């Protein structure tokens, strides 16, 4: 952890409250995000137990699987989930603006601009924590290869068509969330931790209740006390007062409350099936309904505190002014959303189980570029982030003490003024290192010439001074100006173009060949009641 | 192969012949050569390049950094001044070593088309990735292939028909600045090393090993081989008495002098400072490193080796200081400047890869640390630092690193399907410390 | 000693405990893997570890029951010897092995050991976390590999007593549920690294007697003592709390309270200390940062002051900007 963040954490311990590590909000927040608080069944991968989901903080939709091992009930849950999420996605897919995109012309091979559609806004999904992100990916993976009755009339447990479609969207969102700085799918604990340091470890920050306790402790208590209470306090029956943010539930809840309730539900169901006359069936149906309602209440009792906590967390984030470049990164998210919308519309198959060599390499390249972009942009948008870079020797700020006009060699002498900056920062400047400052939002580069004194750095300004012999007004810092130069570049160069997947070289297994549709997952008999 | 050559030269020559036979005979699309530290990798690359050029096979050479490319160009030019060589470079300022401009047979350009038709063209993997050709090169040599990432090979592999891959599996692995766990275990994991991917897809390729380190002395090769290359051992090209270090000025009894004498006599020295938790730029340890270097120069050192029976003076250019972090290197440079020492290389492990000195002084990556992170335990880092010297290596470290290692037992995650090529960093650190403990000089500055 | 019970008695119960849903499914899975005389397990051992060997049409599954751990260990050693001599495939279901740990014998019970037709031995580890599209949680696989490495070492002890000593394979078979199903799938895991590390750890392990000797006389961990006495007893055992402990140790919450009371910085994470040098408490670090303590020539103190100054400057800049925005 960078020292400046360590200090913030320790200040949080000292003051009993979380301390800022950002002065602006570095992630875009939608005006109407969809919050998703899922719960899962212990011991089985991707087996949903229930969820609260929706865009209205006062009216979440409660979805429950009363018997998690029953595949019919699970599909009902997933179909209901699709009924909430897909309309929300569709509401963004239709509203478009025209935009330009550079593409390679297939005939000439030249880069040309084409007019295309860009969705005006994109749906934003919020989950409570990082484990929630993993669960979204898992759900996406478990749903996207499901066979519908239409695709395969023989499928033993055909899924409603919305289920594989939701699986594809969740997969896309899950993958996108791996791109640094993206905001289509956010884990609230990650976003909060980006902006504040608590007096506990990063691992403990993954507990949403404890994290919020540090950010916003109840009156009269310290963050430490409130966090401890959120983590550990139990009622006389041994249940946690602040249930975990999921998707895993507390074992004490599973064993003492949920398991007996599911057992009652199973018994009621068996009894109903065995009913011999309508009157008896009516009574037993009522019993089954009661048993189901009991489970619903249990699930809600576990998910609701987290649901409310997520909205509280969003309130805290909204109070911060938006960072300058957050919107630009959101535009990339909109492109990502629009691209997937088009792939679905074009009838492309679901994302494969594994990326091919070229796709994997392209994804990694994109993420590394976005990581570098994010780090640069956050520093430029936020003096507190820049302070960390200055402390690390990756940037320096100071006052211009001298400007000497000089000219470059060459036939047409162009201005190459020498600027001396007095600074207390200690940048790691190698010989002839390049440095950059933001000039009206564009990077201007300079070269390190020498240290005139221990605290005086001489730079040669290299560009953005116009075409004339004399620099354009305002393009060269003046004596007395306060300037901040970075050793890192502000904009990222595009990487090399990789071969098309059909041209995968022999070193990487050669062309993958004709794509075959992915098979559906196998199903264990015993999962099905 | 079970025969053991008594003569390391013969063993090395046989390995080289087999490599060149497979490369020029070219029945397979690729040949892989593992080269431990100082085993003559560059010599092999230059020789293979010259023989391929001689055979009339258009050759491209891929290296990982501009410095490596420039170094190969200079070596080629030295071996065969007649051979026209192309140096493809980026369009940045200072893209290549200006010394190349002095060589008439070397043509430099930022455009591959300008260099078409030359028998050998060299560049970095990053630059080659932007080159598009209609007709692939007949042959390529990929240097430092273990430090090249799989995705980087993917971008250039379409440029050649067959290739010789050469590298040291023990040095620092390539890394990605973002997580890449989702592809771990895939044969073409883009963040894995190029060789890993190549061999996963082409397991039948001939694999060779240079069996002899000409750099490491007899005192160092067994330790480095056991600790870092347990599954692919190598030996030293020289015997116990072949390299000697002596000093004109006798020891003044100080810690630095005693550790210098220990290192001169045995090849290793551990200057151990009292246990203490310190920040990375531990001022005492940094001053101790500088003091050792100062005394190495002041005491009139001279080296005798198989290269020269007459003693060769130990100059600043033959000494290097290695650290784990850049700020440590900066602190050591400042401390050396305070003592008036000039011309000694001070750098991090990453930058010392592939370099060679008579004596190295190493600030142990775990010295004074309150914790041991994966970065500091990375096997390649310690391996690079412990394998740059021809005569002796002095390690400066605070006491208590063994206990620190015990407090941080290795709990590395394991990805299914990945190949284990290298020992565990924790284990290798213990192995090296156990050996260094036998050459310990305690010192309270 | 039961650390969970001890933790409850100390007043800081662990969050551990297993959901019965996980338990049921885990047990059902292991039963499935070992059903039909281990046919599925042997099929996986054949395809993942030893595809060149004959297919395991039939396999011996010797009875390993015996009186007490020593008896079971002896029975296991006997069965291993017989299986090695017999050739063909043998499955040892829940064998018992012994390993010398710091001078006292620890009894270990691997899920299974397979004897191959060539007489070599393999460890089998059955886990209930899934292998999804061929990959699994690396932290969990790592833990399984370290666990298996201990079994490999214990098996090597048994093998060393036979002549000729059979080979103990360093690739173990990890069996997990496949994707979202409860069907077994397997993967070979190379545990050479873990084996080497464990061997060195065992060699370096503080002998348990040494820990016992260092404790004050009369130290006792029996959970029926009162909480204060227990706290004192536990405090006498050296241990360094770090947040990672929370996911692995039942006593972590107790140790965290102690670390908090002592003001130790490590409770915020181990890497935190890296740049703090000799400063180990929150109070000292803050005092050093604010110029009230410490030698300004100490790089840790200097860096902290620099960090504090830069932080204050940036926060002031942000406040000024807010004020300006309000005035506009």
From TrEMBL, chain A:
This is Uncharacterized protein. Residues 519-529 have a biased composition (Basic and acidic residues). Residues 489-529 are annotated as: Disordered. It comes from Streptomyces malaysiense. It comes from the Bacteria.
TrEMBL record, chain B:
Keywords: ATP-binding, Helicase, Hydrolase, Nucleotide-binding. Coiled coil: none annotated. Gene3D superfamilies: P-loop containing nucleotide triphosphate hydrolases (3.40.50.300). Transmembrane segments: none annotated. Residues 285-398 form the DNA2/NAM7 helicase-like C-terminal domain. It comes from the Bacteria. InterPro entries: Coronavir_polyprotein_1ab, DNA2/NAM7-like_C, P-loop_NTPase. GO terms for molecular function: 5'-3' DNA helicase activity; ATP binding; hydrolase activity. It holds the Pfam family AAA_12. PANTHER family: DNA-BINDING PROTEIN SMUBP-2, DNA2/NAM7 HELICASE FAMILY MEMBER. This is Helicase.
């Amino acid at each position: 952890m960078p020292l400046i963040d360590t200090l913030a954490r320790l200040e949080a311990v000292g003051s009993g409250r979380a301390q800022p590590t950002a002065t602006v909000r570095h992630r875009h927040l939608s005006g109407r995000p969809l919050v998703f608080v899922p719960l899962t069944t212990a011991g089985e991968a991707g087996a949903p137990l229930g969820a609260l989901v929706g865009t209205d903080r006062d009216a979440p939709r409660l979805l429950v699987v009363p018997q998690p091992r029953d595949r019919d009930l699970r599909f009902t849950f997933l179909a209901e989930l699709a009924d909430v999420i897909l309309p929300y996605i569709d509401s963004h897919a239709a509203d478009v603006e025209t935009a330009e995109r550079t593409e390679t012309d297939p005939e000439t091979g030249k880069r040309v601009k084409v007019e295309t559609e860009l969705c005006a806004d994109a749906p934003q999904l919020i989950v409570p924590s990082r484990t929630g992100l993993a669960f979204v990916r898992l759900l996406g993976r478990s749903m996207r290869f499901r066979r519908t009755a239409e695709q395969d009339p023989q499928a033993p447990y055909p899924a409603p068509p919305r289920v594989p479609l939701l699986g594809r969207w969740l997969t896309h969102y899950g993958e996108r969330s791996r791109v640094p700085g993206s905001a289509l799918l956010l884990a609230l604990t990650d976003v909060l931790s980006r902006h504040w340091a608590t007096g506990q470890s990063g691992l403990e920050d993954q507990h949403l209740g404890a994290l919020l306790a540090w950010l916003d402790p109840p009156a009269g208590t310290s963050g430490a006390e409130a966090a401890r209470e959120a983590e550990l306090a139990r009622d006389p029956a041994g249940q946690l007062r602040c249930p975990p943010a999921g998707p895993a539930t507390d074992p004490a809840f599973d064993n003492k409350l949920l398991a007996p309730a599911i057992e009652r539900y199973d018994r009621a169901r068996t009894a109903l099936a065995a009913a011999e006359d309508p009157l008896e069936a009516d009574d037993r149906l009522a019993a089954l309904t009661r048993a189901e309602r009991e489970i619903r209440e249990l699930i809600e009792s576990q998910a609701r505190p987290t649901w409310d906590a997520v909205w509280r967390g969003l309130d805290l984030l909204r109070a911060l002014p938006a960072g300058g470049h957050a919107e630009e990164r959101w535009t990339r998210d909109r492109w990502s959303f629009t691209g997937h919308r088009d792939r679905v519309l074009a009838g492309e198959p679901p994302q494969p189980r594994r990326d091919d060599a070229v796709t994997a390499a392209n994804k990694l390249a994109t993420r590394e570029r976005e990581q570098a972009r994010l780090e640069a942009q956050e520093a430029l948008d936020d003096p507190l982030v820049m302070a960390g870079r200055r402390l690390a020797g990756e940037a320096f700020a100071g006052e211009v003490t001298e400007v000497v006009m000089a000219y470059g060699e060459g036939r047409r002498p162009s201005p190459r003024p020498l600027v001396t900056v007095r600074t207390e920062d200690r940048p790691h400047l190698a010989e002839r290192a390049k440095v950059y400052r933001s000039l009206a939002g564009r990077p201007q580069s300079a070269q390190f010439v020498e240290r005139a004194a221990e605290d005086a750095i001489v730079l040669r300004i290299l560009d953005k001074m116009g075409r004339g012999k004399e620099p354009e007004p305002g393009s060269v810092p003046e004596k007395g100006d306060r300037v901040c130069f970075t050793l890192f570049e502000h904009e990222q160069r595009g990487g090399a173009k990789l071969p098309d997947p059909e041209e995968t070289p022999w070193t990487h297994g050669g062309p993958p060949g004709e794509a075959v549709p992915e098979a559906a997952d196998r199903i264990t008999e015993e999962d099905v009641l | 192969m079970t025969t053991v050559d008594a003569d390391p030269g013969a063993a090395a020559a046989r390995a080289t012949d087999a490599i060149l036979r497979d490369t020029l005979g070219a029945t397979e699309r690729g040949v892989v050569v593992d080269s431990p530290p100082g085993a003559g990798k560059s010599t092999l690359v230059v020789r293979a390049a010259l023989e391929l050029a001689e055979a009339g096979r258009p050759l491209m050479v891929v290296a990982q950094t501009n410095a490596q490319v420039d170094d190969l160009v200079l070596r080629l030019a030295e071996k065969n001044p007649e051979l026209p060589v192309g140096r493809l470079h980026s369009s940045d300022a200072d893209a290549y070593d200006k010394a190349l401009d002095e060589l008439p047979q070397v043509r430099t350009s930022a455009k591959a088309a300008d260099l078409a038709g030359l028998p050998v063209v060299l560049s970095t993997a990053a630059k080659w990735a932007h080159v598009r050709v209609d007709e692939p090169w007949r042959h390529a040599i990929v240097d430092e292939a273990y430090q090249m990432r799989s995705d980087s090979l993917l971008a250039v592999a379409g440029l050649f028909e067959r290739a010789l891959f050469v590298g040291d599996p023990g040095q620092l692995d390539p890394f990605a600045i973002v997580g890449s766990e989702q592809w771990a275990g895939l044969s073409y994991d883009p963040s894995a090393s190029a060789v890993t991917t190549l061999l996963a897809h082409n397991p039948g390729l001939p694999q060779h090993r240079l069996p002899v380190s000409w750099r490491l002395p007899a005192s160092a090769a067994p330790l480095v081989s056991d600790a870092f290359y347990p599954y692919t051992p190598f030996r030293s090209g020289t015997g116990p008495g072949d390299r000697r270090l002596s000093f004109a000025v006798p020891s003044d009894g100080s810690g630095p002098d005693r550790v210098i004498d220990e290192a001169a006599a045995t090849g290793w020295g551990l200057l151990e400072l009292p246990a203490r938790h310190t920040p990375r730029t531990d001022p005492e340890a940094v001053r101790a490193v500088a003091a050792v270097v100062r005394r190495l120069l002041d005491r009139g050192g001279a080296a005798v080796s198989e290269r020269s029976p007459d003693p060769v003076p130990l100059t600043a250019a033959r000494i290097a200081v290695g650290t784990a972090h850049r700020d440590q290197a900066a602190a050591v440079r400042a401390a050396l400047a305070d003592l008036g020492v000039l011309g000694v290389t001070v750098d991090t492990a990453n930058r010392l890869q592939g370099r060679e000195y008579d004596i190295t002084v190493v600030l142990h990556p775990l010295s004074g640390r309150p914790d041991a992170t994966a970065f500091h335990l990375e096997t390649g880092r310690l391996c690079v630092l412990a394998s740059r010297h021809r005569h002796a290596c002095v390690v400066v470290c605070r006491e208590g690193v063994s206990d620190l290692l015990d407090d941080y037992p290795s709990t590395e995650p394991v990805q299914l399907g990945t190949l284990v090529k290298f020992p565990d960093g924790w284990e290798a650190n213990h192995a090296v410390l156990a050996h260094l403990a036998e050459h310990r000089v305690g010192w309270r500055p | 000693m039961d650390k969970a019970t001890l933790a409850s008695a100390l007043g800081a119960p662990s969050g551990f405990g297993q959901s019965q849903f996980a338990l049921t499914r885990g047990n059902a899975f292991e039963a499935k893997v070992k059903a039909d005389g281990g046919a599925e397990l042997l099929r996986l051992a054949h395809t993942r570890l030893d595809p060149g060997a004959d297919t395991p049409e039939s396999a011996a599954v010797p009875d390993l029951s015996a009186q007490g751990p020593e008896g079971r260990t002896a029975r296991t050693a006997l069965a291993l010897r017989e299986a090695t001599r017999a050739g063909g495939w043998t499955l040892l279901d829940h064998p018992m092995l012994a390993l010398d740990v710091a001078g006292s014998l620890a009894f270990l019970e691997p899920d299974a050991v397979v004897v191959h037709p060539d007489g070599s031995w393999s460890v089998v580890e059955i886990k209930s976390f899934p292998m999804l599209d061929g990959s699994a949680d690396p932290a969990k696989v790592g833990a399984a590999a370290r666990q298996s490495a201990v079994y490999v070492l214990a098996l090597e002890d048994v093998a060393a007593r036979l002549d000729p000593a059979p080979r103990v394979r360093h690739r173990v078979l990890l069996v997990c549920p496949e994707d979202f199903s409860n069907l077994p799938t397997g993967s070979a895991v190379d545990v050479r690294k873990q084996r080497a590390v464990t061997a060195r750890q065992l060699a370096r392990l503080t002998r348990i007697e040494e820990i016992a000797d260092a404790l004050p006389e009369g130290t006792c961990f029996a959970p029926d003592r009162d909480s204060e006495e227990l706290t004192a007893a536990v405090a006498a055992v050296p241990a360094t709390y770090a947040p990672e402990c929370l996911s692995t140790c039942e006593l972590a919450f107790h140790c965290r309270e102690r670390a908090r009371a002592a003001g130790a910085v490590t409770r915020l994470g181990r890497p935190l200390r890296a740049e703090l040098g000799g400063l180990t408490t929150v109070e000292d670090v803050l005092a050093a940062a604010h110029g009230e303590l410490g030698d300004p020539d100490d790089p840790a103190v200097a860096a902290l002051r620099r960090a504090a100054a830069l932080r204050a400057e940036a926060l002031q800049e942000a406040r000024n900007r807010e004020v300006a925005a309000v005035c506009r």
